[in-house]
Amino acid sequence: YALEDAMPYRAFIWLQSVALGLWQGIAVTLVVALAALAFRRLRDKPIHTIAVGIGASACEMLITAIVSLLGMLVLFTGKKSDGAQFNLAYDMAVTPLLPIVEPLILALQMICVVAGTVLVVSGIQSKRYVSVLGGGLVFAAALTAVSASRAITLFGPESRWVIAGALLPIAALSYVVLRRNLRAWQLSPIEGETAMEAFLRENDAAAN
Question: What does the angle CA 193 – CA 198 – CA 200 come to, to the nearest 5 degrees?
């Protein structure tokens, strides 16, 4: 007797996605935390951490674009070109402004990745492990939303805007948390800095 037979289909998808998102969130958090411990420069300044988060998201965007282009090339030049054209026409019918959706989803994911990375690294830097937990929750929430909504749109007639809609509130909350955490990080003392360096750092934080 399978669990999926005992509950509604979408509820099962969300339950499965939550479990997957939690495991992935834990894995990403561990990787970021180990990188922050191994590379001191990563946690010296917030801009370094933000650059890492943006770089990771840019790599994901590039890989997604390459895979999509290769997939389209194979589908439209192979024996299944008629099926591929039908699937594309179907996606365009149920998803208005289809070419905009995927870049928007990746941009929302980038906000979540940057926010989660900053939370984890700043938590390691200041030994505020609540921030590390918060970063892990951001990763897990974003991964859960993407996994569940993609499964729903893959096996159902729903528009791909469902994925963007599921990510939007998480990305908005991540942006707010990111802004607050960056200011707190800039105002927190740095080990070994002089009084003048601390004064200049606080003035920079106030100016920003």
Answer: 125
